[in-house]
Amino acid sequence: MRKVKEFIVEKLILICGLACIFFVVLIFLFLLKEGLAVFKIVSPLQFLSGKSWYPISEPPQLGILPLILGSLFVTVGAAIISIPIGVACAIYIAEVAPKKIKEILKAGIELLAAIPSVVLGFIGMVTLVPWVKSIFHLPTGLTALSGSIMLAFMAMPTIVSIAEDALYSVPKNYKEGALALGATEWQTIWRVLLPAASSGILAAVMLGIGRVIGETMAVMMITGNAAVIPSSILQPVRTLTATIAAEMGEAVVGGEHYFALFAIGIVLFVISFAINVSADLFLHRSK
Amino acid sequence: MNKFNVNNLNIWFGKAHALKEVRFEVEANQILTIIGPSNSGKTSFLRQLNRLNELQPSFSMTGTVLFDGKDLNSLDVELVRKKIGMVFALPLPLPLSVFDNVAYGVKMHGKKNRKEAESIVEDSLKKASLWDEVKDRLRESAFKLSGGQQQRLCIARSLAVGPDVVLFDEPCSGLDPISTAKVEESMLMLKKDYTIVLVTNNVKQAARVGDKTAFFLSGELIELDNTDKVFTAPQDKRTDEYIRGKFG
Question: What ipTM was estimated for this complex?
């Protein structure tokens, strides 16, 4: 009787495990099947480097370079803002802050992570966007810069918590060893702790960026959604994700536009996959 | 003149009274060994000499530690730790090359000149009796060295910043007998130029390398005398029992 029970449980767990992989493979295959169809109309090179995205004109122009650049502008902007602040915050929490402040800050970071992205987008729209508009004297505040700033807030909790873990797991002896050589607190942090935690911090940064690239709702609300090649971060842009979210509802199933959106999905998938894999590599190198 | 004069030193960690009314002298250019069972306060005492104890938030103390006649607590803490180097129980190379491990402290204290750094590194490795073994492997990762070599690398690293005193905190506890012998050999060489304080769990090691030996028990200094005397004719019965291995 016990053997039978054991057998059933074992097989059930196996099925659950396989189901995960099965669904991922199915999703991936579906994405490929729907997405690759677009390359009957445009070549992959044209698709990636085409400068205009007019999917419903006649004939449709399916170049996603403006969208890729849009995503790139917003992501790089968000990275420039969130990485220094996030890593500095992690250093402060892990090494400098007294215990009480540390706990308050950690709770704050978790709270920041808990804000739904649509709420952040909404807050950005009514506070940040007018502010960007008036400071830079722009016709509209819906720009890549606004998107970057809001997304930086979203990447920050990921970066801070993972980087803090990485710093915390540096052996305490390293710190003592450096101090015993007569290093100051800051020299110890800068020359011993940061290098020792570098792979974990890089992983934190990668995962933070991964979150930014995949983010849809907030960027759709505050980046202006103009599918043109941006020349500065003070212009409206449209990201890959926002394009899919905004247009999928009106694309004809089985049409060129529909296939093109799936192909954008593949591009996004490849980017996120590359980022996650490299983050993983960094994390494993640290262990 | 004494390197250290310790007067009525009391140390607490929270409510735990780690050291009680310790009076102590350390003479220059000698090896002073400190023995005693675990929790006897010997490591706390050692870490007081380069002020590592104060990193613990619960630490408090009374009494004075004079270093070359000056109150240790009135000196700049980075200078104290530069002048009073420390080698820890486990070899702790940084994830850098052999050369960079030794040059580390030198660079940190602002000597950027490559030539100068190279000669300091060579000199320090020689003093730590490691130069001959690693002179062709300076660019390799320090983790590729054996445990005993890593420990001597750590000795070289503390020597490179130019200390007067080197504190050893059970430096051989993780090493095999041959590596231990090499570390002891380099300690004996070092006492020409440095004052050495060695905390050890290995009573025989204390007898082998010590000029003077101190015995700590439950936070009190029981006895401090010439090593020969402590090991052949100890004044206190407890010292005798510890050395003979009756407890601890």
Answer: 0.79
Long-range contacts of A277-285 (CB under 8 A, 24+ apart): A278/A206, A279/A202, A279/A203, A279/A206, A279/A207, A279/A210, A280/A203, A282/A199, A282/A200, A282/A202, A282/A203, A282/A206, A283/A199, A283/A200, A283/A203, A285/A199
Buried b (16+ CB within 10 A) or exposed e, B193-232: ebbbbbbbbbbebbbbbbebbbbbbebebbbbbebeebbe
Q: A169 and chain B: CB distance < 8 Å anywhere?
A: no
Report yes or no on A45 lying in a domain: no
Tally of helices (H runs) and strands (E runs) in chain B: 10, 10
Dmax of chain A from CA atoms? 78
Q: Which residues of A touch B88 (CB under 8 A)?
A: 173, 176-177, 180
Q: Could you read off the pLDDT of A188-207 as tens digits, one per residue?
A: 898 889 988 988 899 899 98
Q: A138: pLDDT confidence band, cut at 50, 70 and 90? A: confident
Domain, as residue range, for A141? 53-285
| Total structural domains within chain A | 2
What are the structural domains, with CATH classification, of chain B?
A: 27-47+79-243 (3.40.50.300)
Which residues of chain A neighbour B104 with C-beta distances below 8 Å?
A: 181, 191
pTM of the model: 0.77
Q: Check whether residue A27 and residue A111 sit in a common domain.
A: no
